[in-house]
Model the fold of this input.
Amino acid sequence: MPLTSLPTPRTEDSADAPPLRWGILGTGWIADTFVRSLRRHTRQVVHAVGSRTTESAQRAAAAWEAPLAYGTYEALVADPYVDVVYVATPHNYHFPHAVLAIEAGKHVLVEKPVGLDAEEARGIAAAAARAGVFYMEAMWTLFLPKFDVVRQVLDSGVLGRVVAAHADMGERFDEPHRIMRPDLAGGPLLDLGTYAATFATWTLGPPTEVTAVATPAPNGINGQLAIALSTQSGATASLHTTILADTATRASVIGTQGRIDLGTRFYLPGPMTLHQRGGPSLSWAEPMVEHDALHFEAAEVARRVAAGETGSPLRPWADTVQTMEVMDRVRGATGLDFEQARADREAAV
Done:
């Protein structure tokens, strides 16, 4: 039966989540945006900041009103008062820094991508299992109220048999932005493509086939990818990601009885519409606050840690590994690799 109204999101008020003492590992743009969202919307405590230099850590700590600044990551994770570490260093350092925090007994929220490949994602899981700590990927999109509406619509079965998903994720970048640097695992796949691949696997499940074509950016790094997936049920996904141009960044999931459309910049807070065969079209809107909504994922971490859990059902680590496996297969289909990023990381350690 068609729906006559959309479900209400079950997302709880982030201010109600029990406070944890956070250590912020990294001081770049995403760390700054995350901390500012925490401070505006939650009772979470930014206890300490860790960076490669004392000067960088002190600047960030002053901006975020954190009481402690550490000039090494090792010193941050050794702080006995840090409950959870947010790993926000460059892509190729997420794996070693997540393991560093886990082996110090800290719960972790790891920025996406959690590693350079699925093997590194599985390595984080193994370390966390040994330590008995909470660990989660910071795929913040899935914690937004809009995505809980989508989740409930999918669970209701109102779309009928789901047959396809589409996702486009493109933004133009120019040098010297980090996404243009091969030593930092640049290109669209791990950064922007993570959103598209997550959307496809979240809505359709694991693919049985993955194929892709790639084209380079002017500096020789991968510039864009067109990706096709198919699943055991016969559903297909078409994904596109690029750093060469600004695209519509829309997404859809399509069933025999209906379709969900997510508007421009689908991964952010904003609109979605359910189109139903033989029923009304229903729309959801929420404040388009962009990355100020990062607090939802932090609140989820705090609730799960306080409950003694080691993961979240909203983004299970198995789903994170599954997304990384898709991206591994995309690299296999296109000949892309992150060997320079891996080599530079090993040289720096």
